[in-house]
Amino acid sequence: MAALIEEDLKHCLEGVTVSRLMGPNEANFAGNVHGGNILKLMEEAGCILATRYYNVAGKKNLPNYQPGMAALVRVERTDFLQPMYIGEVAELHTELTFTSAHSIEVLITVFAEDCIKGQKRLTNRARLWYVSMSSDEKVLPIPPLPNTKKIEQGKIRYEKQKKERAAHRHTRIERVPSILQEELDPQTVGYSQTTLRHLVGVVDTNSAGYVMGGVIMKLMDECAGLVAVKHCKTNVVTASMDATNFHQKVKKGSLVTLTGFITFTSPKSIEIEVVVDAEFLRSGSAQKERAVSSFFTFVSLDSNHRPMPVPQIMPVTEEELERHKAAEERYLERKRQREQESTS
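Given the sequence above, the corresponding structure tokens read:
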């Protein structure tokens, strides 16, 4: 039995590879695979590895081991480096990179493979953070990774995300902007603001009855995509998703309401905020909880799949102007970070 556990642990440390052929139901009218589908695949792959590691290593190293299921709590900023198309194979590689007392960091790298041409290219890379939950919804202790080579870098990333999550948790929850009936100008925020509603069913949840983080991210990307295409009226693709924190578990049977609206436009990109509120319908209360929110960046593509200028948004209300100013600062910070990464 001990030898079997050792072998299973060895396999965990080698990571997990997931492959899936991209079909028409996963792409837009131009053949680009939706960013949300990639995000969902990434979360599924990360969940497999995090759940497997906790249970295999936990049986060996935890004296009071309880079975657990990985739950997504944070996704670091994710850039979509290149588009993926119908007919290509999404190949996801996962790697355990750090464990804290109660969390697991998983690095996920995504490639698009053209099996006919024999070509493969990098499309995404992101770090996802998970906790392990017991059947009675307790956060479980995580066994430390053996022989971690880059533990100091991992500690730095852990403390950074911990600080950011704490800061985000204490910021006030922004209300969803209301649409004014007179806002019919296509360049206003209200024109393209979009609301989606989704009733969480069995297919959306894990074995504990809570919605998978990847399902929520897929819906968020869909909502943001609708905002972008309504504003640009062209082929639009996801360029990035900012670091995203998951604050509330969403139960099976909940109604999730997603609202997306433009916060900023640069000459060739659009920032869209998507907020997700969850209402558990069987609770007897109409109270909603903010489950998650994030900022997506989209670009508009011409017929040759090259970025093209986007219509500029015109903030009207004081609230829209405040959001626009904050979004411009985020845009400049992202630009600065990209320039630093390109020179490092």
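The chain has six helices and 13 strands. Try to locate this feature in the token string yourself.
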